[in-house]
Amino acid sequence: MSRFASLLFVALLAGCAAPSFVATVSVRHQLPATALKASAPVASGSAAAVQAAMATPKAFAIERNASQMQSLAYKQFETDLASRLVQQGLIWQKDINKADWLVRLDYQVDDGKEKSYQQPIWGTVGYSVSYQRVFTNGGSVMFIPRYYPETGIVGSQTVSETIFTRELFVDILDRKTLDKGEFAKLYEGRARNRSHSDELDSAVPLLIQSLFLPFPGPSGVSREVRIPLTTPKP
Fold it and tell me: Where does the signal peptide begin and end (predicted)?
């Protein structure tokens, strides 16, 4: 088997594996580890002072913009995100003025980009032959040939497809610092998924989940997150 055919065979086997949702997660943060149940080490420098000042669990509120205020979908995603933050030891405060931290959530999908690639065409490339020995009524021996087709790559064809990029954005800011007009961001998380589908309803919860595997995760690092699916890939 040629090297190309071997690689293709491996790819076909991978395609038969259990489906998964794949997201690229990028995070920058200086969240205090003491304010969360589980956290990656905070950055050095100014983050150390932030951590010392926030040694107790914090209350957060989710801040909406005008377009999000009356969105049922956004409300659902907001609840999903808030429940995951609560699992990290934070307190969900509905009154923004009583919150220590402000959380901003947004998501989007692009118009899709065309991608073309060469797909191999399989066909008959030849025949192999074997002989069956047969005894006649007269006692002589005859050899009857049997032909078997051999398949392989006989060419290629150009295949085009549309790939959509679905993205989620989550920011956490210190409310009091923001009120002073100073730099207040504590966490900046981005999750991105590329798919043949531009549908967002099923993708956003998975993008949110990917940010918590783990949370807050290593700062300044992009990583790939795979979430096994039990239903058809969204």
Answer: 1-22
